[in-house]
């Protein structure tokens, strides 16, 4: 395995059983992502972006081939090992935020730290740092229903980042946001990528997101159609 690689996918296919036959959602995927990348899987709806992101996130397994994430082959992990990988090293951001409505912003962001059994004083500091990164320290006692969509997604980013994971997976993170909020959360993620060296992998078909990516991997019908790097001065800042 390439030492600097955080994700290494080889000869990966994924099929879903459909009655007596099967539907192939991903085929012949070969990809390597290095540490610190700010990369997106781009493609129309149904092209396989979420399926691939879920496999990288150890939420699903390949049908054949391999996906190594932080040097672990996700299809071969037990449920407990996969849960450990997610808990310690991965952050997830979804289109629908997935916040707990009855809990405060503080409690939502604190949740991954409880799973890691981090003590109360350190948890408080880490939560406040994460809320500072996304500019929401003044909403610490609010609950998600009292926040705008953009604020909810910023809470979700803080929750994904609070344990300082090596890899953040973001599936259509701007799908429910207006342009101003989309740019704001993307600028936040670029800053975290630069300052904390967190690797980001997006699944998106939003041109606003695509403008910030440094590497664009195009999927079409479950295959990599194009894989291109963008020069630093050609991304949005
Ligand atoms: N659990 C599943 N069972 C059957 N087909 C699925 C399942 N998940 C995804 N698919 C199919 O795989 C294809 C790719 O889906 P998905 O990865 O969600 O695409 P995208 O995120 O690019 O819109 C689609 O045709 C979808 O219907
Ligand atoms: Mg999707």
Biggest sheet character: 6 strands, mixed
Distance between the termini: 33 Å
Name the bound molecules.
adenosine-5'-diphosphate, magnesium ion
- How many helices? The count is 7
Which CATH class is shown? Alpha Beta
Average predicted local confidence, pLDDT: 95
Task: Trace the largest sheet across and list its strands.
Answer: 6-7-8-3-9-10
Radius of gyration: 18 Å
Shape: globular
Query: What's the number of structural domains?
Result: 1
CATH homologous superfamily placement: P-loop containing nucleotide triphosphate hydrolases
Which fold name fills CATH's third level, the topology? Rossmann fold
Low-confidence stretches: none
Q: What's the SSE pattern?
A: EEEHEEHEHHHEHEHEE
Please tell me about this protein's structure.
Strand 9 and strand 10 form a beta hairpin. This protein has helices at residues 49-56, 79-89, 105-115, 120-133, 149-161, 179-196, 207-210; strands at 5-18, 21-34, 38-42, 64-69, 72-73, 90-94, 167-171, 199-204, 215-220, 223-229. The chain has seven helices and ten strands. The strands form two sheets. The chain has a six-stranded mixed β-sheet, sandwiched between helices. It has a four-stranded antiparallel β-sheet with strand order 2-1-4-5, covered by helices on one side. The chain has one domain (5-17, 24-234): P-loop containing nucleotide triphosphate hydrolases (Rossmann fold, 3-Layer(aba) Sandwich). The protein is an alpha/beta fold. It binds adenosine-5'-diphosphate and magnesium ion. Magnesium ion binds at residues 49-50, 171, 203.
């Amino acid at each position: 395995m390439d030492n600097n690689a955080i994700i290494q996918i080889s000869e990966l296919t994924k099929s879903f059983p459909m009655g007596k036959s099967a539907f192939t959602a991903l085929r012949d995927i070969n990809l390597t992502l290095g540490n610190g990348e700010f990369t997106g899987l781009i493609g129309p709806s149904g092209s396989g972006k979420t399926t691939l992101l879920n496999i990288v996130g150890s939420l699903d397994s390949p049908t054949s081939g391999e996906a190594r994430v932080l040097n672990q082959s996700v299809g071969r992990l037990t449920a407990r090992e996969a849960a450990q990988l997610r808990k310690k090293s991965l952050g997830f951001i979804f289109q629908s935020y997935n916040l707990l409505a009855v809990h405060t912003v503080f409690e939502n962001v604190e949740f991954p730290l409880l799973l890691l059994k981090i003590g109360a004083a350190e948890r408080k500091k880490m939560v406040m740092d994460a809320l500072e990164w996304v500019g929401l320290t003044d909403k610490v006692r609010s609950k998600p229903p009292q926040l705008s969509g953009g604020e909810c997604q910023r809470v979700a980013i803080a929750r994904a980042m609070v344990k300082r994971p090596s890899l953040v997976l973001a599936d259509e993170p701007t799908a429910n946001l207006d342009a101003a909020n989309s740019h704001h959360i993307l600028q936040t993620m670029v800053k975290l990528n630069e300052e904390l060296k967190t690797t980001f992998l997006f699944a998106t078909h939003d041109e606003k997101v695509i403008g910030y990516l440094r590497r664009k991997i195009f999927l079409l019908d479950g295959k990599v159609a194009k894989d291109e790097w963008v020069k630093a001065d050609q991304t949005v800042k």
